[in-house]
Amino acid sequence: MRSLMASLTIEGLSKTFGVVDVIRDASLEIPDGEFVVFVGPSGCGKSTLLRLIAGLEDATSGDIRIDGQSVVRTPAAHRGVAMVFQSYALYPHMTVRENLAFGLENMRMKKAEVAARVDHAAKMLRIDPYLDRKPRQLSGGQRQRVAIGRAITRNPRIFLFDEPLSNLDAELRVLMRVEISKLHDRLKNTMVYVTHDQVEAMTMADRIVVLRAGVIEQVGPPLELYNSPRNKFVAGFIGSPRMNFIPGRIVRAGASDFEIDCDGLGSLTLPRDGRAIQEGQFVTLGVRPEHLELAPEGTQGWPLEVDVIEQHGSSTYLHCSAPAGEVLLHIPGQGRQREGEVVRVHPAPGKWHLFGADERRIAEAA
Amino acid sequence: MAEGAVTSPGWAFLARRRGGIRADWTDWLTYGYLVLGVVVMLAPVLWVVLSSFKSEGNLLEFPPTVLPEAATTARVVGYDRPLPLYAVTSASGVARTLAQVRRVGIEAQMVDPAHPEAGVFAVQIDSARALKHFHIGTENYSKLLASAGGTIWSSIYNTVFITVVATAITLLMNSMAAFALSKYRFRGSGVALLAILATLMVPATVVLVPIYLIVSELRLVNNLWGVILPVISTPTGVFLLRQYMLTIPDELLEAARMDHASEWRIFWRIVLPLATPALAVVAIFSIMSRWNDFLLPLVILNKPEVYTLQLALAGYSDENGIQYGMLLAMTTLTALPLALGFLFLQRYIMTGIASTGIK
Q1: Which of A295, B201, B276, B287 is a plausible cystine mate for A301, CB 3.0–4.6 Å?
Q2: Which of A106, A114, A160, A167 to mutate to test the interface with B (most CBs of B within 10 A)?
Q3: Does pLDDT of B9 surpass 50?
Q4: Which of B260, B266, B269, B348 to mutate to test the interface with A (most CBs of A within 10 A)?
Q5: Is the pTM of this model over 0.90?
């Protein structure tokens, strides 16, 4: 099947419900064939942004362009996009076949063409044995596939997915994740995928869009977001388990290194790498659990008391308490620490982030 | 649950108990109350149906008989008509079965059907008891159909026409209004709903005269449409359908919109099929009220050829007093289609309750 491709441009898009700004001045450029994931905590506006693209909500201001053409005033049906809903939204009184064909019949397509497209989509998604069943006779995974099939038959320019895997159990979710990724490789359509699960975002996306309270916080490939988050929110949201944040204060800002006094944990000397910092500045040090290392004897490190140990076999999680809150360590192998023991840890070289009081990351100068 | 699965579901439903296996006193109370309800509701209906099969004489009898009965007769040689039989006990205590030839005051002239040659003899009427047997008399029905001639069929046609057409239009109008009120956000939708519901507070008799004036202005007096059009949308129907349609997820409509469906097509292909249980309820209400409607047809239809069944039914009580036999037969006939209709639509209501309640 010929796949239509389309770029998607969002420019200064805003949406208000009454007095609530759900989307604030969002701008985004999605090239042909890219798999973009919108991620953020619930209520961040990611679903609204998707529905604005779909045409199910009217924008308050701004513009949406598909292939350079403004569609902001075009009704949903004529935007050439297809959407997979969180609840699947299959028509319960129609068979799978009728569900798949409904959109095509509405387009007044010839019967033979409809049948061909339905067959094609059903085979691709392996739902052809269930074509004459009603949705309620299908399992969650099968329903999900029918919902995707309904989008495929339409041969849309852009696919939109609204948290499509949130109703599936964990095992099936992993399978469907792979299937949707494969589908993208095969169809090569532009796809926009909304989720609150950062693992889905990391594993599936070409680029991730992180949203918070209606504002796009950062856009970039998964690893870019992981390695250089723009601010504390993105740093905390991307990566699992969450990044540790340790508040502190710069006590000395030297030319090549600086010393930070972490609340209740003592001071630490770290390379400055041209960061714009001043003595006395309040900062937050961010270190991912996997980037905290046990400090060898005699070197500098934070003393942390181990509260709980989680053995995963291949790795070990140490939940430690520090005066400013819990600190989580993820160390490779089977750790021999005991609960109640005090371990000395320090951040792995180059694997830590410094955030200013405005939550923005203080980046090293190139 | 397992118990119910083994026995038939119907019985399991009827024999349900509150909690455990043993019947609680509340169960007895509940069943007692329900049985009382069944008797109170069903007894008059049964009485009417049974009585419709009684002959005129049987109907006027006192004390009344429960089952329809007819006098037992016998053909006696020498008499043209069959004679009614009586059990006669003579003064000496001998019981005989005699046929009555004629009755004069408190004496009756009787003949022994076994020995008609013995001639007629007089019998005191209080020593004779009429012999009767169970007999389903269809004469009320045949008389009804014969005496009414063509008008009964035209009445049936008129009633069926009004009921079917009015119900179809009512369902359409009500569901379209309900669709708009439940699925579209527009300024004044709350006010519109309130206004519709507020009309419930206006008694039907109050608007009867205005309705007649409008109908007559539209020159629809003595026209079936004059009865159909005035009450085509019902506030209860709109409200009921709206409440049901609120339970249809908006995502289905949005999915259909993305599927290039027009709003009209969404209404026909998505919303209406999913609202079937509520539509069945509204249909039953509409059929019942249209079929039984008396006041509006009485005012608007006043020629025999446009009479509805209910008007024709009322017609049996003028000319020579009340013709109970025909009245009862007609009542049974008019109630029958309703009962059948309810039996047919009832399963939709049950599935409706089941699908909304359990999910």
Answers
A1: A295
A2: A106
A3: yes
A4: B260
A5: no
